[in-house]
Write a structure and sequence with these properties.
six-stranded parallel β-sheet, seven-stranded parallel β-sheet, Rossmann fold, alpha/beta, single chain, 14% strand, 59 helices
């Protein structure tokens, strides 16, 4: 009997505790006793854990205790889960205590056996103690075993005799398993030393797995028996496990779940539902809605029914989001059944951006007795997961909703039911999950599967069928994963030196690396030893030192830390840690102590959230995590700080991640099952389906689904049929759906190749999406074949009597098929363009320690990882043998894609074993609708623009043209822009001469040679720290002896520089570029011919120097300037270098230098930062002074003479330049806009410019009355400043309008009568029937319509003035003067109308004088327009921010402007900084504007100083201006300083402190309020209703020292004040009166002020009324009136 092999005490305990050993236990003990490795394969609940441990424990209890404490650890247990490790530690207490008690009863004394756990949560003191005082049994995880082996603590493993690997099937087929296999071989190498016990015996525990031989080979490794290897005995007794799985659908029709009754209706009872299926037991929420719009409410109700009918239930979902959502919903259902009144989730707003993640109503889950379930997944805190597990085992919690976190062999107690929501990912996964129920030996495992949509019916049915029969998918061990190898090599070398042969021997003993070739291994070692250019990507620097003479590998400094902090195989997803905020209570929810390297940091960890969800979250939002609700208090760059919010509604979280595709083997089985079902008669098909475990509604749904598909397409996809379906989508484009059951691992590479082929053949981007059930292609309508093309039917009748659509896509079936012999090559050719390859390369580079964590204790954002990986890929792609590049390809082709299955499928299609059926359907078939659901989800957040437009968006601005516009390639000003101090600092850093960059060790000197070489001894010494500088010659000699450095002589150099040192990796480069003779003994790998050796040396020179002339590089390498210049120009053409005037003159710039592009970016960034630091931001109120002065606005009441500014026509021309393109009310143009800028403005000044052809005007839109929006343009640039082509209004429709446009289309300008004649000459009505010929009135009306639509202009402003003078306008205008004398007729000629009485259209009042013409054509090039717009905005505003975009009417086009501004900044033509407070960080300014802005800030500062003095003197409170902390000073009436223009000196009167008052039209771009600045609040916000100000036509604003004081509505009828200080109001009123009178703006009548009538007794005594009357307003029955002068 097998128990006789155990000691009496162990045997007595076992026979007392168990009836007999299970078959698995007996077989395992026999195998282990024989000395071999053992693999125990048995279903869950077979006693595997005890089978593995009992033999080892018996040896510990009865064998001798080692004398050396460090040898005490003799049993090592490795678990893939921390939770499983803790579970096993707890379960070991029973046999240890039991055996000890049995020994005591037998009078025996047994030694103490200590059990320890080593995971990431182990405290530091226990970790340190392990090396000298390890426990007898160590329970750990693969990652922790790796860390122990990569530290001094590995001494504590020197006595291990037995290694138990639990759940080996869960890791063997993954890279984590490859990592563990190497760790086990490292452990054996540690044990297989002279003083060691020899390689350990391995015992593997596995659930049912296939093929068993592959797992056995993985467990045992490939160590030969003669070298200490052991055979692997597979213990796999016949399974007695009974698995019962039922597939349940809670609605009669999944296609229309809204018609299904709720849980209290007549639905078939759920399996085991018991009394809970009746109406009497249904709670208040059960029957209140008999129809549901989605299947989910029905699933939730039925899950609650099942939970209520069982003692302990485990519910599985396929995602963390699903677990959180389902937990929240079933708790809400339970609460409603208990009588709680819950709010409608749709009425809650727990987050500012709820997205589509859903809302939980906030059921309090702190007390397990009050809820039905809690969530359990890997993104929750460990403490919360432990609490949930404990409460479920103790029976306090009825159910747990989990992901795969509870899939492995954790003992969850007496579970009696497992519920799977959604089809299981695989048969093996389904068995693991259902096996959690009935975990005890001999118990039945019961499970219920709920498909959630029709597409899951077949997978659920077939998976359940194969679960019952135990038909698992095959598992494959990865072959030679090089990223894992690189990591383990660094870890091995970090703790001790290895020869290459010894390391290779140990590595090849691991099963995944049994076939590792020498070339592949040496390629990995080359990468780790620094063969690839680290100067292009820093993380390619050497990790190990390879002494090629002795073939010994040793560690570089930092290798140990790198291996420890960045080790492991689980990809970093950049998740945000969620922690309790400081001082926050836990809210009775367990949290983890935050640890880093085993040290507690003080934080309390709640869990982790996806990066995207955090980006959508805001402070104050509430969300659920782990069934609890949390409120966000702060979001930092690497964590979210929260406080508990129990019972509060919360947003449901989501996470993004990859889901494994369906195995091809399972897909083939599904296809065969469908084919067999459809071949049966209806009764037989139903019996077959119900025999698979489907309940009546599930069977109905599945059979209906299949028959509807057959009716739609004629054939149903199966293992022998692939259906290609085509139909039009909602937009009229073709969708092609390839229906196949073979799974995503087959369909993904197939879709990749097909999309590339269609793109190549037809020149269109085809949106392709793959899924487990097929491929969806969206073809643009341009692929229509036409009436005679398309796919011809193959004679197969289509279901439902359909006929194929002849007007099909111009696509052949051959386009969708791949030659079987070309599959691998075709997939490999397209792989590099796929997103999957980029992701796999990033993950592989991370595992290979090429993307290490810069701060191991901080979160590394996923976007940063992608950015760094993209930079590495750019470098690696130039080296075809780069190991990680090869590994990413291997992983995609072997692990992610099933190219072998795809090849087999294509071969079956070619041979006819699989038939391809083509069909055109009027609408998507049922199968297609299921696929399209995933297609929509994939592209839902891809943006509105089609793919081609998204690509074009990045090319909107032509970079070459933009550089030309900036002048001389955009680099002409860089020498002046670069800060000399920044250049010198950067050169010292990249050149290695900065003190902090100097070498201090031999290894760092080796880095100096790699980064800067070749160098002379003196040049190396300059780059070495002074205390060790004298050791440089010795260090160089040591590097030469180890073949890591070479000493060479370079011809063409002076004798004192001829002898130089270089890294051995540069041997071939120096030989081929400089003709250097290499010393003897250089390894052959470093003498290979390189494609561009001189280019490599010059690129290195550029990367380690600032801007340099070609002569400097030529002098350094002893080459001719012409040779060097040719190579430098080639590198410049490739974009690697930049040429131009780059070096500041003070640093010896020659005017023609080269610089590395990255170095130049650094120099620009630092120089710009230095410039920005010189400018302190000014108060926003300063903008109210700066902007009018920048635009040449003259303050009112000041003398206009005596200044140096422009006058007369020149002043008008300058104003037009700044105002070009701004739409302004025509009535304001010559009343307020130009008079404010031009002293003594007269209309004749503008007429002179228009008559000379220098200025034109354009209409934008007609306003109420006889007014409209017009803009002025310098003719030379009008094509650039006219309205954007996309913003042009539509051409007015009508025959007269068309005739006028035709008449003008030939060019030229025409008087009205001549234009009328041209219209008459060409006039004809529709259909050839002449209509009444339009007269001059009709033509003139059409002309004005075309003016306001932006198509026609006039060469004079006379007609516009006449238009304004014949009706009401926004601003009062003066009528145009008339000439009374007409030209008299002579010699019988007909008379002309008097010029003083221009032709007037009686209907519109518009005049027709002047010559009419079309506006110039708009420039279409977006780059030219963006450059012109940026230049115009800078000229107009001086300081430019995004806030002006709406006021300027450019909206989304500011993005293009921003690109130009950024380029201008790089060229030194503008400055970016934080110039004005509270206007955002992206502010651009012309250099002169910054100085002017600071000078204008003095105006506000002085006003505030005087205000302080005035307040101290007890004066009345001044105005509460929007950004003033103190009120301004009182002013006397303004008088007389000189006007200011850009570049003019500060007027003396401004410096003396007189008020600076301007009166502007509210729409004037010189008014910053309502554009760059927000409208300020009123001085007393609570005193009554008043309307908001606006930039409206007809409104005026009065600014005093930059602050808005008065806002007058159209005609002055209503007035808003923003100050209650009498002195401020008097100054503003005086300025208003002065402006109205000098500009001849007519009379003003103010009837209401601040929302109240002004004629009440109280109002007339208000400060504003007194100010107005004091300035000249008089009281009239209509209000306060200012009469025109």
């Amino acid at each position: 009997m097998v128990l006789d092999r155990f000691s009496p005490a162990t045997r007595a305990w076992f026979t007392g505790a168990f009836e007999a050993p299970t078959a698995a236990q007996a077989g395992a003990w026999e195998a282990v006793a024989g000395g071999g490795h053992a693999l125990v394969v048995a279903p869950t609940g077979s006693g595997k854990t005890l089978a593995a441990f009992l033999w080892a424990l018996d040896g510990l209890l009865t064998g001798p205790v080692p004398q050396d404490p460090s040898q005490r650890c003799r049993v090592l247990y490795v678990s893939p889960l921390k939770a499983l490790a803790t579970d096993v530690e707890r379960n070991l207490r029973s046999p240890l205590v039991g055996v000890r008690q049995a020994a005591t009863r037998q009078g025996l004394e047994l030694p103490e056996v200590r059990v320890g756990i080593r995971t990431g949560d182990t405290p530091p003191n226990e970790r340190r103690a392990f090396a000298t005082s390890p426990p007898d049994v160590l329970i750990t995880t693969p990652e922790s075993l790796y860390l122990v082996l990569t530290s001094a603590a590995r001494r504590g493993l020197a006595g291990v005799r037995t290694v138990i690997v639990d759940e080996v099937h869960a890791v063997a087929g993954t890279k984590r398993g490859s990592h563990l296999a190497l760790s086990l071989e490292r452990l054996d190498a540690l044990l297989d030393r002279e003083e060691g016990p020899g390689p350990a015996q391995r015992v593997g525990l596995s659930a049912t797995v296939r093929p068993v031989d592959a797992v056995a080979a993985y467990l045992g490794g490939s160590r030969p028996l003669a070298d200490g290897g052991r055979p692997v005995v597979v213990v796999q007794p016949p399974s007695q496990k009974v698995v019962e799985v039922e597939v349940v659908v809670p609605v009669p029709d999944l296609a229309a779940p809204g018609g299904a009754p709720g849980p209290a209706g007549a639905a078939p009872p759920a399996p085991g539902a018991g009394a809970w299926g009746g109406d009497d037991e249904a709670g208040p929420g059960a029957g209140d809605a008999t129809t549901r719009a989605s299947v989910w409410p029905h699933v939730e109700e039925r899950v609650v029914d099942l939970v209520a009918a069982h003692r302990s239930t485990l519910v599985f979902t396929n995602s963390r989001r699903g677990a959180e959502r389902l937990t929240a919903r079933i708790n809400e259902v339970w609460a409603e059944r208990q009588g709680q009144d819950l709010p409608d989730p749709g009425a809650l707003a727990p987050a500012q951006v709820p997205s589509a993640s859903g809302t939980a109503v906030g059921v309090d889950t702190r007390d397990a007795a009050q809820v039905v379930a809690r969530a359990h997944h890997g993104s929750m805190s460990r403490a919360e997961r432990t609490r949930t597990e404990s409460e479920l085992k103790a029976g306090r919690l009825p159910a747990v909703v989990a992901t795969s976190s509870l899939e492995l062999g954790i003992d969850m107690g007496a579970l009696d039911l497992v519920v799977q929501v959604g089809s299981p990912p695989s048969v093996a996964s389904g068995l693991q999950r259902v096996g959690r129920a009935g975990h005890q030996v001999g118990a039945v495992s019961r499970g219920v599967v709920f498909p959630t949509f029709r597409g899951e019916l077949v997978p659920a049915a077939v998976t359940a069928l194969r679960m019952r029969s135990g038909e698992l998918e095959s598992m494959q061990v990865p072959a030679n994963p090089l990223d894992v190898l690189a990591q383990q090599v660094v870890a091995m070398v970090a703790v001790e030196d290895w020869t290459v042969d010894d390391l290779a021997r140990v590595v090849r003993r691991a099963a995944p690396y049994a076939t590792l070739g020498d070339a592949t291994l040496r390629a990995v070692l080359d990468m780790l030893a620094g063969r690839y250019p680290s100067e292009e990507f820093a993380e390619l620097r050497p990790r190990v030192v390879w002494d090629r003479v002795g073939d010994v590998l040793s560690a570089r400094p930092g290798a140990l830390r790198l291996a420890v902090t960045s080790g492991g195989t689980i990809p970093d997803r950049g998740l945000y840690g969620v922690f309790l905020a400081t001082g926050a209570p836990t809210g009775d929810v367990p949290v983890d102590a935050e640890t880093s390297a085993g040290r507690v940091r003080g934080g309390r960890r709640v869990g982790e959230l996806d990066e995207e969800m955090v980006y959508e979250s805001r402070v104050g939002d509430t969300f659920t995590l782990g069934s609890s609700t949390w409120r966000i208090e702060e979001i930092t760059p690497d964590r979210v700080l929260v406080t508990p919010a129990p019972g509060v509604p919360g947003r449901l979280p989501f996470w993004k991640g990859d889901s494994p595709g369906r195995p091809a083997e399972l897909g083939r089985a599904m296809g065969a099952w469908v084919r067999e079902v459809l071949a049966l008669p209806p009764a037989g098909a139903r019996a077959r389906v119900e025999g698979a475990g489907l309940d009546p509604w599930a069977a109905d749904n599945l059979l209906t689904y299949l028959t509807e598909q057959q009716a739609s397409t004629g054939q149903v996809p199966s293992d022998t049929v692939v259906v290609v379906e085509r139909f039009r989508d909602e937009l009229g484009d073709w969708r092609v759906v390839v229906h196949s059951p073979y799974g995503a691992r087959v369909h993904a590479p197939w879709a990749l190749v097909v999309a590339a082929r269609l793109r190549e053949r037809y020149g269109v981007d085809v949106a392709a999406m793959h899924a487990d059930d097929g491929i969806v292609l969206r073809l643009p309508d341009v692929l229509d074949a036409g009436p005679d093309g398309g796919w011809a039917p193959d004679g197969e009748p289509l279901g439902g009597g359909q006929t194929p659509d002849a007007d099909g896509p111009g696509l052949r079936v051959e386009d969708l098929l791949v030659d079987p012999d070309d599959v691998l090559d075709a997939v490999r050719d397209e792989l590099a363009q796929s997103a999957m390859f980029g992701a796999r390369f990033r993950e592989a580079a991370g595992r290979a320690l090429l993307l290490p964590r810069r701060r191991p204790d901080r979160r590394q954002p996923l976007w940063q990882q992608r950015q760094r990986a993209a930079q590495l890929l750019q470098v690696a792609s130039r080296h075809a043998d780069f190991p990680i590049l090869l590994e990413a390809v291997r992983e995609c082709l072997q692990d992610d894609f099933d190219t072998a299955a795809l090849t087999e499928l294509m071969r079956d299609v070619a041979s006819g074993r699989v038939k391809v059926v083509e069909v055109t359907t009027p609408q998507p078939s049922p199968f297609a609708r299921s696929l399209l659901f995933g297609y929509t989800a994939q592209f839902l957040y891809e943006g509105d623009a089609p793919l081609a437009e998204r690509r074009a968006a990045a090319l909107t601005l032509d970079p070459t043209l933009l550089a030309e516009l900036l002048g001389q390639g955009g680099q002409s000003q860089l020498a002046d822009l670069l800060d000399p101090a920044a250049v010198e600092r950067t050169e010292a850093e990249i050149g290695g001469t900065a003190p902090e960059r100097r070498a201090g060790t031999l290894e760092q000197v080796a880095d100096v040679l790699r980064r800067h070489g070749p160098l002379t001894v003196d040049e190396v010494a300059v780059r070495t720290a002074e205390p060790v500088r004298e050791q440089v010659p010795a260090w160089l000699d040591a590097l030469a002896r180890s073949r890591r450095a070479i000493r060479v002589r370079i011809g063409g150099l002076p004798p004192d520089r001829a002898e130089q040192w270089a890294a051995v990796e540069d041997a071939g480069r120096l030989r081929d570029a400089l003709g250097v003779a290499l010393p003897v003994g250089v390894p052959e790998v470093f003498t290979e011919v390189l494609p561009d050796p001189l280019g490599d040396l010059l690129r290195r020179h550029a990367r380690t120097h600032g801007p340099f002339p070609a002569s400097a590089a030529a002098t350094r390498f002893g080459l001719g300037v012409a040779v060097v210049t040719e190579t430098l120009r080639r590198l410049e053409a490739a974009g690697v270098l930049v040429q131009g005037r780059l070096r500041p003159d003070v640093l010896g710039g020659t005017g023609d230098e080269y610089c590395d592009a990255d170095v130049l970016r650094t120099l620009r960034r630092r120089s710009l930062a230095a410039l920005r630091a010189q400018v302190e931001p000014v108060d926003p109120q300063v903008l109210g002074v700066f902007l009018p002065r920048w635009q040449g606005v003259h303050p009112v009441g000041r003398r206009a003479d005596g200044g140096s500014g422009l006058r007369g026509v020149d002043a008008v021309a300058r104003a037009v330049e700044q105002l070009a393109g701004v739409p302004l009310p025509a009535s304001a143009l010559e009343t307020h806009v130009l008079p404010a800028r031009v002293p003594g403005y007269q209309p004749a000044m503008l007429d002179e410019l228009t008559a000379a052809g220098e200025v034109l005007w354009a209409g934008h839109a007609a306003l109420a009355g006889h007014d409209g929006l017009v803009s002025l343009h310098p003719v030379a640039v009008a094509d650039l400043t006219l309205a954007h082509p996309a913003a042009e209004p539509a051409v007015p429709h009508g025959p007269v309008h068309a005739a006028v446009l035709d008449a003008l289309a030939g060019g030229g300008a025409w008087f009205l009568q001549a234009l009328v004649d041209r219209v008459h000459a060409a006039w004809s009505g529709d259909d050839g029937q002449p209509e009444p010929v339009p007269g001059s009135t009709a033509v003139l009306g059409a002309l004005w319509d075309l003016v306001w639509s932006g198509h026609v202009t006039n060469d004079a402003l006379t007609p516009l003035r006449a238009w304004l003078g014949t009706g009401t306008t926004a601003h009062r205008t003066q009528p145009a003067p008339a000439r009374g004398r007409a030209l008299r007729p002579r010699l019988g000629l007909r008379a002309l109308p008097a010029l003083g009485a221009p032709r007037v259209d009686a209907r519109t009042g518009a005049t027709g004088s002047g010559r009419w013409s079309l506006l110039p054509a708009r420039e279409q090039d977006p780059t030219l327009r963006a450059h012109a717009l940026a230049a115009q905005l800078l000229d107009r505003h001086g300081v430019l921010t995004r806030a002006v975009a709406p006021a300027e009417g450019i909206g989304a086009r500011f993005g293009d402007v921003y690109k130009v501004l950024s380029t201008l900044e790089q060229a030194g033509q503008v400055r970016r900084g934080y110039f004005v407070e509270r206007l955002g960080g992206s502010q651009f300014a012309l250099p002169g504007a910054v100085d002017r802005l600071r000078a204008d800030g003095d105006v506000v500062d002085r006003a505030r100083e005087r205000a302080t003095l005035r307040r101290e003197d007890g004066a009345a409170s001044g105005p509460q201006l929007p950004w003033q902390e103190v009120p301004p000073v009182p002013w006397s009436a303004p008088a007389g300083p000189l006007p200011w223009s850009p570049g003019a000196p500060e007027p003396a009167s401004v410096a003396s402190g007189t008020p600076w008052v301007v009166v502007l039209a509210a729409t004037d771009p010189a008014n910053p309020y309502g554009a760059a600045l927000a409208w300020p609040d009123p001085p007393h916000p609570g005193e009554g209703p008043r309307h908001r100000p606006g930039r409206k036509a007809g409104a005026l604003v009065v600014l005093v020292d930059g602050a808005l004081v008065l806002h007058l509505e159209r005609g002055g009828r209503t007035l808003l004040t923003f100050s209650d200080d009498p002195e401020v109001l008097r100054a503003a009123a005086a300025g208003l009166v002065d402006a109205v009178r000098t500009r001849h703006a007519g009379r003003l009548t103010v009837s209401r002020a601040d929302g109240a009538p002004v004629l009440t007794a109280a109002a007339l005594q208000s400060p504003v009324a007194l100010a107005l009357t004091g300035a000249g307003f008089v009281t009239t029955p209509r209000g306060l009136r200012l009469h025109a002068p």
